[in-house]
Every structure is written in C-alpha cells, then in structure tokens.
Amino acid sequence: MGIDVVVEGLTKAFGRQTIWQDVTLTLPAGEISVMLGPSGTGKTVFLKAIVGLLRPDRGRVLVDGVDMANSREKDIYEARKLFGLLFQDGALFGSMSLFDNIAFPLREHTRKKESEIRRIVMERMEVVGLAGAERKLPGEISGGMRKRAGLARALVLDPQIILCDEPDSGLDPVRTSYLSQLLIDINTQLDATMLIVTHNIDIATTVPDNMGMLFCRELVAFGPREVLLTSEEPVVEQFLNGRRAGPIGMSEEKDRATIAEEASHGLVVGPPTRRTLAPQLKPTPGLPARRAVQRRRARVRELLDELPPAARAAVEADLRDTAEAYTANGADTLVRTRPLHTYEGGGPA
Amino acid sequence: MSAPSEPAAGKAVGARPPLRVLNPLRETGRLFALGWTVVRLTFRRPFQVREFVEQFWFIASVTILPAMLVTIPFGAVIALQVGSLIQQFGAQSFTGGASVLVLVQQASPLIVSLLISGVAGSAICADLGARTIREELEAMEVMGVSPVQRLVVPRVLAVMSVGLLLNGLVSVVGTLGGYFFAVIVQHGTPGAYLASFSALAQLSDLLIGELKAVLFGFIAGVVAAHRGLNPKGGPKGVGDAVNQSVVFTFLILFFVNMVLTALYLQLVPAKGL
C-alpha cells in the first residue's frame, strides 16, 4: 500500500516572485489525487518541491517520516527511492535505448541479475504498450511513446508514490483516455499513492479520488473529487467548464478593467453551470478492485458532515450506488467492479 | 547535490533578496562546493567503472592527435627561437637543456591544459548542459541517483587520468620535435643536445609537470561540470555555459600554473651545470 504525503505550509518563491504560499494538504495513502491549475501556476514546481528537487522557502513535506524539504541530503536520496516521477516529456536519457532507460533504476538500486532485470523491464513495457520498441532511442520515437516509456521507468521499482507531470500534454484525446485508464490500472495493481498534475478536464473528472486546484499563488481547494466537481467556487467552476467568463484571465487573475471590458462584450459570469458528475473510471475487467476505493469511502464517510451540500449529495449518491452494485452483483455481470466482498473490512453503506 | 543545482532564492518570502553584487562570490562558493563533493563522492561505492572507461576513452581519443599536432610545432618554435638566441651567445650546445626546461616544466602542462579545457571540458560541459535542460539529471536525482556521483565523478577522474598520460606524451613528442629541429634543421650535434639535456633535466621537472597536469585535469573537469550543471535557460544557455567554461578554465589554469611554477622554483633547487 502507498504512503501518505503530508504537505504543511509549503511556500516557494523565486527571488521576489512568490509561486505559491501556505499550501497544506495530505495525499491520502494509495489514492489518486489530481492537482489542477491554469498554466503557469507552479504545478510543476509543486511536484518538484514534493520530491525535494526544489527547496521550498517555508514549510515541509513529510514522506515516511522524512522531510523532503529540510532533511539531510542522504535521507532525501534514500526517501526518493519511494517515488516514481513522470516528467512532462518523459526526461529519458537520450543516449540510452528504451530498454536501458527503463532498466536504469533497477541497475542502480538493486542487485538483480540481468535476466531478471530483462523480465521486469519487458513486463513494464508490456503494461504501457511499448513491447517491441526496447531497442529504440528516445529520439526515434513519438512524444506519446516517450511519455509512456517515462511512465514505465517511473514504475519499475514498484514505487509507493507516483507523481505525474501533465501526462496528457502532447497526446491526442484517444491516447489521453487510454492513459487515464492506464493510470487507474496502475493504481489498482500497485496500490500506490498518486498525484497527477494536469489541466486536462477529462483526466480530472474521471481519474482521481481527490482533487485540488492551485490558482493565484494559493491552493484554492483540495478534497474528495465530489467537492471540486460540484463546487460553485468561481475559479474552480470556470476552470472545469473552460469558460472565459470568470476570475481567471489570460495571464493569472483578471483585474477590474478587464472584467468591465469583457462585460461590455457581453462576457459576464452567469449562474454556475450544473455539471453532471462523471463516473470515475473502473479498472480494466480482469483486474481486482481498487483497494483505494474502499479506504476512500470510509474516509469520506467520516468527512460527510463537513462537506458542502452539493458534494455531500454526490458522495451519498456514490455510496448508494455502491450498495446497489453490491446487491446486484450476484446476478448482473454488467457491473464491472469485482464482487465487493473481496474488499477487506467494512461492508456497503 | 542540491547546493549547486538549486536556483538562488530568498531564504524566506518577503526577506531581502540576495545581493546581486555578491553573485560572483556565490558562484565561486558553489564551484568549490562541487569540487569538494566530487572528492567526497569519489570514494563512495559503487564506482562507475563503465562510465569512467567510456569517458576516458572518449577524452583520450579526442585529445591525443591535437596534442601531438600542437606539440610538434611548439617544440620546433622553442628549439628554433632558443637556438637562434643561444647561438648569439655561442652556446648552441645548451639547446637541449633549454628545450627540456621550457617544454617539460612549462609547455607540456600548458598544452595539456589548453587541450583538456578546450576539447574535453567543452565536451563535458555541453553534454551535461544538454542533459540538464532536458531534465535528465533531475530525473536521475528523483530516481535516487546522484548525478555528481554517477556522471561528474567519472568524468573528472577521466580528465585527470588523461591529463596525466597526455602530459607524458606531450613531453616526449615535444622533446623529440625539439631534437629534430635542433639537430637536423639547425645542425646541432646530437651529443651536445643529449648532454645538456641530462645536465639540466631532473626527475622533479617531470613530476611537477605531471602534478600540474593532474591538477589541471581536476580543475577543468570541475569547472566544466559546474557550468554544465547550471546552464541559464534553454539551448542558448548551454552554448553560453560551454563558452564560459572554456574561458574560466583557461583563466584559472594559467593562474594556478603561475602559482605552482613559482612554488616549484622556490622549493626545488635547479640543477647546476
């Protein structure tokens, strides 16, 4: 099972420019979280701060008892072995073949025999759909393939925490859907804590258990997916609907003059659009159920009283559906979730 | 190795930004920090044998031929120059001695330093710089592998060993070139050349040359790596970094050479005739 990532009061500035401040959140163990945010809000910087590549100015990031921001270099290097990070364009080593790239962490950190390395690498390449491309150099393949190879490399040490930096950028919608499914399947198989940084609405609505949004140097919100997906907070709402009307402008926040000018063009914020809550993706049939789902239900049930009404209704509907799926499961094979009695602990609500 | 790779940022938000005037000092500090880290990580297992051998081979293959081609005319110039000057004193028989003093002690470490910083240093800097802007090094760090230990240490050691061996090569080729021009071209006598050679030369001349070459290799490797690890934005930044790396290395090496020569001349008495 994955491990918690606890971020407390994280603040980062480059020179005088504050990127974000006082970001506090917990990535729940084994669950998938998505961090949304318009371009340029420091999403990538946030990822890099979590793995300790960038030192934040204040705050800490606790992973398995190690503070990734302030610990000794040796401890940070040790803790990084828990991570798998998918970079925006894969960050593959240009001089190595895909096979060597993916085998790199194994060769560096394990004493496995070459035959075993080969077996693991081939298996991972199969998972991301790259079988047969192992002799290719990163320069010889498409961006989508590079991304998948980067993902395979991030997965090869069975990380407890997987961070993905814009896994969808440069992919077509079909490949993006496949990638979404792949991310869910990976979470099912490894039960790792995942954080996906993206501004792709499809991924954001169908993949995560939890969502957060960075805007204007702050964490606007972070919580169960229902909270953001039903949110009436203008920033979140505008972003999820991809509208121009709202507080987000071309570069960061709109000022009053821009709002007035847009209003004169008829661009005004109406009442919040009601969004139907897209169902979360299920693991590919044949895989066991995601263990995170059950854990999250238990967690969210605890939170239920604190949630805003709309989110609360959505969560309750979700819990009800599960109960129905459970009762129907005996006969109805259309329900793709594996029988719920394989979940450890707690029955349906 | 987070110290040299992290961008300069204020310690706390709202605190005074770091003084720009002190930037050169800060850079120097980072350079020394990297140098120290390289020394420290050299002794940390596992040693990257494969990377070392590959780099050694690469650096040797790109420096040997230019080194010889530079040395032969250099040896010739010294032989001709010294020869024609010394002829006016009527002391042609000492051309061999002059050749060794200039070549083995001074010229060969300098030729080595020029080649190492110009050829090996620029290649290392460009390689690391390109990897840095492609986020390869960050990816490596995320995988819990120190780029300094994995990439920089083998490169610095390779430059040092190539420097050591190259210095020997340059000394031999230079001396042979000097011999050819002094004896064949200027009609000196072989016996006089060799006699004055062994009269003035001592083993410590070669040793200081080798010491210099090794030290130059270390400095060139560390400076190139430091510039390569911190390019300022984009492909042009890498180009600038390579440029700076070569210029800085030249400046530092010539200065270090001066200091070492002064020390050597003070500490080791010259051999009398």
Give a written overview of the molecule.
- The complex is a heterodimer of chains A (349) and B (273).
- Chain A has 349 residues and is an alpha/beta fold.
- Chain A is 39% helix and 17% strand.
- The radius of gyration of chain A is 21 Å and the shape is globular.
- Mean pLDDT of chain A is 82; it is low at 328-349.
- Chain B has one domain.
- In chain B, helix 2 packs parallel to helix 5, helix 3 (95-133) packs antiparallel against helix 8 (234-267) and helix 5 packs across helix 7.
- The N and C termini of chain B lie far apart (53 Å).
- The model of chain B is unreliable at 1-13 (pLDDT under 50).
- The chains are: A alpha/beta (349), B mainly alpha (273).
- The A-B interface holds A 11-16, 18, 21, 48, 51-55, 57-58, 73, 76-78, 80-81, 83, 85, 87-89, 91-94, 104-105, 108-109, 150, 153, 157 and B 1-2, 6-13, 17, 130-131, 134-136, 138-139, 141-146, 150.
Q: Roughly what percent helix of chain B?
A: over 70%
Q: What general outline of chain B do the C-alpha atoms trace? A: elongated
Compute the number of strand runs of chain A: 10
Major beta sheet summary of chain B: none
Q: Average pLDDT across residues of chain B?
A: 84
Biggest interface, residues from each chain? A-B, 38 and 25 residues
Q: How many helices of chain A in DSSP terms?
A: 12
* Annotation, overall tally of beta strands of chain B: 0
Count of helix runs of chain B: 8
As for the number of domains of chain B, it is 1
Described by the principal axes of the CA atoms, the overall outline of chain A is globular
Cα-based radius of gyration of chain B, to the nearest Å: 22 Å
Query: What is the assembly state of the chains in this entry?
Result: heterodimer
